[in-house]
Structure formats: C-alpha cells, structure tokens
Write a structure and sequence with these properties.
Elements (H helix, E strand, L loop, with lengths): L11 E3 L5 E9 L8 E13 L9 E7 L1 E6 L2 E6 L3 E4 L5 E5 L5 E8 L6
Antiparallel strand pairs: 1-2, 2-3, 3-9, 4-7, 4-9, 5-6, 5-8
Amino acid sequence: MKVVHYSEPTARQFESEVVRGVSGRVLIGREDGADHFCMRLFELAAGGFTPRHRHDWEHEVFVHAGAGQVYRDGTWVAVAAGHAVFVPANEEHQFRNTGSEPLRFVCLIPAGPPEL
C-alpha cells in the first residue's frame, strides 16, 4: 500500500508553444507496482493550458480545485472543483485554466502509455 500527499512526488514542468503553465506528478504508477492504472495530478497556472491532443486510451479526470474549461467535440465546457470528466479513447481534448487560482485535477490512465 502507498499513501502519499499529492504535493510529495516531484513535479515535471511543461512549457512550449502548445502547452503553458502545466506541471504534472505521478501519484501512483508502475514504480509503485500499479499494474493496471496510473494516477497523475496536473496543475495549470492561471492562463495555463494542456496541448490539444488525442490518444488511443481513455482517461478519467476529477477536478480537485480551481475553475477552467475542457475542449470537447469542438466546444469548451466549463469545469470546476467537484466535476468529473470522462475522455474516451481517440477523442480530441484539451484543458485550460480560466480562473485566477491554479486548476488542479487528478487524471487516471491505463497502464502502458507514458505516465507523464
């Protein structure tokens, strides 16, 4: 068993033309013996956004803090603390922070794809 506070794992920073103000942490992954899933935490600074992308696996997201939007089917949908999001495999998606505080969300993916 592993018990960890989300702030303990080392954060990886993401910054480029297609991603701004994003940090990601693996909370529970293959190094912990998790054979089926990986749990990550992402934090988007005010004005930050993930790249618009798609991939072969589904993932589930739980918004822990902040406010933002998720790109889905060509439109932006508002999300805030307490919302859950299901992203099916191969669906184009993107998250962006529309608030003044960090947007923090937990993201679960199946084992196999890169964890970050």
